[in-house]
UniProtKB/TrEMBL annotation:
The chain crosses the membrane at residues 20-41, 56-75, 87-118, 124-147, 159-179, 199-219. It is a multi-pass membrane protein. It is found in: Endoplasmic reticulum membrane. It comes from Macleaya cordata (Five-seeded plume-poppy). One of its GO terms (cellular component) is endoplasmic reticulum membrane. The keyword Transmembrane helix applies. Its main location: endoplasmic reticulum. InterPro entries: GPI_biosynthesis_protein_Pig-F. This is GPI biosynthesis protein Pig-F. The keyword Endoplasmic reticulum applies.
Length: 229
């Protein structure tokens, strides 16, 4: 039993070490994917979230989804038991499931309902799913214990947890803050659903990435210090 525990601890240490070394690149590529999608929308199609939120959101999640799924599948837990293709499949399945959850939550919290808002809500929900649900699905699959630990209790314990948990929380908090101007009587086009919440989600996600990198540096440094002792 002691030998098995030591083996599991050793695997977690190797996994955390590898994650620290590649986490910056994973985040950088995800951010570049978003930047490219925004650039293409603005410079190729002459649209943005204000002028054409539906088409811009479609472009964002279509460009970002293969990047997120393929990258986070590389970081899957227990690679000896879960193949890369299986992790990719979990991410693909998690995308629409997460979108349903996001859409349901948005409607419960006051998002407008109507056929004219349906396409906007669907595409916003798909982007939010990429920020929150898909990375977790790729890495942890259906492990309820890990989902509960990261999102119900917010108790990340490994570097890999911070990569997933902090940007996801940042996207949700950014969405919540972005919704504040919507009911104000300013009559600005960016107050329409889901323009300001989309900007808020992207901003929160990017800030969450920066925060996760800081957490990982502290976590990695502490781990190295403990190893030295």
């Amino acid at each position: 039993m002691g030998k098995k525990t030591e083996t599991n601890r050793s695997y977690r240490d190797r996994n955390a070490s590898v994650t620290v070394s590649v986490s910056f690149m994973v985040h950088l590529i995800c951010v570049l994917g978003l930047a490219i999608a925004f650039w293409v929308a603005q410079n190729v199609y002459s649209i943005n979230l204000v002028s054409d939120p539906t088409q811009t959101l479609i472009l964002l999640w279509v460009v970002e989804s293969p990047i997120v799924i393929l990258l986070y599948s590389l970081l899957r837990r227990n690679p000896e038991q879960c193949s890369y293709l299986k992790a990719v499949g979990r991410g693909i399945v998690g995308l629409p499931i997460g979108a349903l959850l996001m859409a349901f939550g948005a409607v419960i919290l006051g998002a407008p309902i109507g056929i004219q808002y349906l396409e906007k809500t669907v595409n916003w929900s798909l982007l939010m799913s990429l920020f929150t649900v898909v990375p977790t699905a790729c890495v942890f699959g259906s492990s309820w214990e890990d989902w509960q630990r990261l999102f119900a209790y917010t108790k990340p314990v490994e570097v890999l947890d911070y990569i997933i948990c902090v940007p996801a929380h940042g996207a949700v908090i950014g969405t919540w803050l972005g919704a504040w101007p919507m009911p104000l009587d300013w009559e600005r086009p960016w107050q329409e659903w889901p323009v300001c919440v989309s900007y808020g989600a992207v901003a929160g996600y990017l800030l969450g990435i920066l925060a996760s990198l800081a957490f990982m540096l502290v976590f990695g440094g502490r781990r190295q210090h403990l190893k030295g002792e």
